């Protein structure tokens, strides 16, 4: 019997497997695809999830350099956000890694940690009782097998079989009048990049190099790799007759050229990426925004796109779902989870899903054509001119605006929030970043009191690592940090610490 069976070997499933192995439990990942998906999909991570990967030592492995630093700017609804004015309060971190490479890194890490990943396995059904989950799957050899685990997690995408068979509703909306087209193209002599994040297009002139809204739609150009720029169009107008053969027909570069001409008003001949480079030609008819009614059914959980889909940063959400769920499953399997710990997964992550769906739908509305939307954008730009509003929007986009309920409130400390970055001097005199102390995904008590809390924490030494340290910019005398990076308690009161340890890490 396995501890946990994970259905789906994409980023959510692989990261969940890594987190479970760090916590000392045995997962099995079942993935339908016989080989990793070579398609070019998501092109980066944004917000506090970047710091989560840094906590696990994966930031540099995914192409980051040094340590994460806040991005000087970002976009909302195609509108530029001058985040540099926020200074130390800027929560927006960026990691321009495409999903293909992210999956490769997570797959390599899962293998290093000893997680078993079976490719070419198609899950057909499951059943559960009070003690176990039986999963019927067809292996790569075509033979059906029943596998058993204590828990089952569906990370199997927006059309999740696990969610459907668990009877979990997936309510939401579809904006059927929006058609998105995306392509990776080769270099072109018809456009060149200009200073200040702009691009000069022959026949049109100079426009923003990211989002450019016109009366007919939105044109987006991203050039993380100048040899393979990514372009996207979004059109709200009625689809012209013969615009494309049908939603199931492959998209072509000619169709992309036609869409660019409708949006920009100029013809831009397109060429494919250099030979041997990944390609992408994708058409999406309609924008789906859906959030699962619940994230759990008995011993069955859902995470990632199985729990939420939107035209937004769902990959950011997926990895944080995995980090939140993994340590709670592990604590339950190892017998030290407090009552109700597993239920807190849905409570905490559902709220984050709601926020992402809200802001992605708002961003779509702000990019739609029309005079009314133009007026709304002018008003919104004025509001963003105020630092307090810019700070709120930045936190929303970074996923840093959701505070978990940790019980006792500490208004002057970061209780319930994702832990801030800290530079520490540990008891042995070493200078360490806090992120380096979170590599093992264990609960961590950072004791800055000089050891005054050692006796209080001692009964939890088996589950909670304690580090005595000093820090010049610490927000509290001590921080109790959950494995997913959230501060469960902050302060110096031994009774408060004992209550938090009891609530999150064992009955004591």
Protein described:
It is a single chain. This protein is an alpha+beta fold. 27% of the residues lie in helices and 26% in strands. A hairpin with a 5-residue loop joins strand 9 and strand 10. It has helices at 11-22, 48-55, 99-112, 161-165, 253-264, 314-333, 343-367, 371-384, 387-398, 454-457, 494-505, and strands spanning 2-7, 27-31, 45-46, 74-76, 79-81, 94-95, 116-119, 122-128, 133-138, 144-154, 172-184, 191-194, 198-201, 205-208, 211-214, 217-222, 230-235, 281-291, 296-297, 300-302, 308-309, 423-426, 431-433, 444-447, 465-470, 478-481, 487-490. The mean pLDDT is 90. The strands form six sheets. Strands 1, 2, 7, 8, 9, 10, 19 and 20 form an eight-stranded mixed beta sheet that branches. The protein has a six-stranded antiparallel beta sheet with strand order 15-16-17-11-18-21, sandwiched between helices. It folds into three domains: 2-43 and 98-170 and 292-364, FAD/NAD(P)-binding domain; 175-288, Alpha-Beta Plaits; 423-505, 3-Layer(aba) Sandwich (Glutaredoxin), CATH 3.40.30. One of its GO terms (molecular function) is oxidoreductase activity, acting on paired donors, with incorporation or reduction of molecular oxygen, NAD(P)H as one donor, and incorporation of one atom of oxygen. It holds the Pfam family FAD_binding_3. Its cofactor is FAD.
